Amino acid sequence: MTNFSDNEILNWAALLKLKAKNSKDRRLYDFYQAGTYCNETPLSDIEFVALDFETTGLDSQQNSIISIGLVPFNLRRIFCRKAKKWYLNPQDKLQENSIIIHGITHSDLQGAPDLLLILEQLLDELAGKVVVVHYRHIERDFLDHALRLLINEGIVFPVIDTMQIEANLQRAKSQGILSFFKPKHKVSIRLANSRERYNLPAYAPHDALTDAIATAELLQAQINYHFSSDTEIRKLWL
Asked: How far apart are CA 70 and CA 82, in angstroms?
């Protein structure tokens, strides 16, 4: 079993309780009040929700969310019938280069709601669960910045980052004694490339819901290969 517990462990349960006490927005108060798991909870007891955003760019300070996909799951099942997907009215303009990547056009977003209109539903879907993403600086940073603009209050929540897990695994592998004698080559930790290493099927990229499902499957595979159902959540969340 791989151990990445050398990082400082944050007491997320205590932090969310403190955030609930200080939150002025009812929706955020309810989200924080739902709490989270204690550090010692085994992964087998965790309810996860995989989350993915499509955005107008990669800068959370300048760009905005245009699509959200999420799906709840645990170590045994992915609950696709409970999956959710929204298109959102962007706070900045769609750029041609981003349209080429995610394929979301102006016509797709015609009549799409602002984030505020679906915020309560989104937070209800995330509340009390452990959020799983592939590259946390998109989902956590974009949502935090958007809420600071919309309600003058940001958001924090624990995540498991499957990209970070894969980066840690590849780093540990490259530091082995035998790898010293092998030619060095950079290994991709993008979602599709990471899935290939676990023989997971290839999906069309850059659809928020498809990528959320792909991230859920990737975490299940990572845990099956490198951890165990008894691994404590503190070993993986950030």
From this structure: 9
pLDDT of residue 174: 82
Q: How far apart are the first and last CA of the chain?
A: 19
State the helix-helix crossing angle for 26-33 and 12-22, rounded to 10 degrees.
150
Q: Give the whole-angstrom CA distance, residue 144 versus residue 155.
A: 5
For 160, which DSSP code?
Answer: E
In this predicted structure, what is the pLDDT of residue 183? Answer: 57
The first and second tokens of residue 63, run together, are: 């760009």
pLDDT of res. 2: 42
Task: Please give the backbone phi and psi of residue 87, each rounded to the nearest 5 degrees, phi first.
Answer: -95, 145
Q: Model pTM?
A: 0.91
**Minimal CA–CA distance to 23: which of 152, 117, 136?**
152
CA distances (Å), 105 to each of 56, 63, 68, 99, in order? 11, 16, 15, 6
How far CA 200 is from CA of 35, 212, 222, 237, in Å, comes to 33, 14, 11, 23
Is the CB of residue 128 less than 8 Å from the CB of residue 33? Answer: no
pLDDT of res. 7: 45
Residue 135 region, left (φ>0) first, then alpha (ψ -120 to 50), else beta? Answer: left
The residue ranges of the chain whose pLDDT is under 50 are: 1-7, 99-100
Residue 99: how many other CB atoms lie within 10 Å: 15
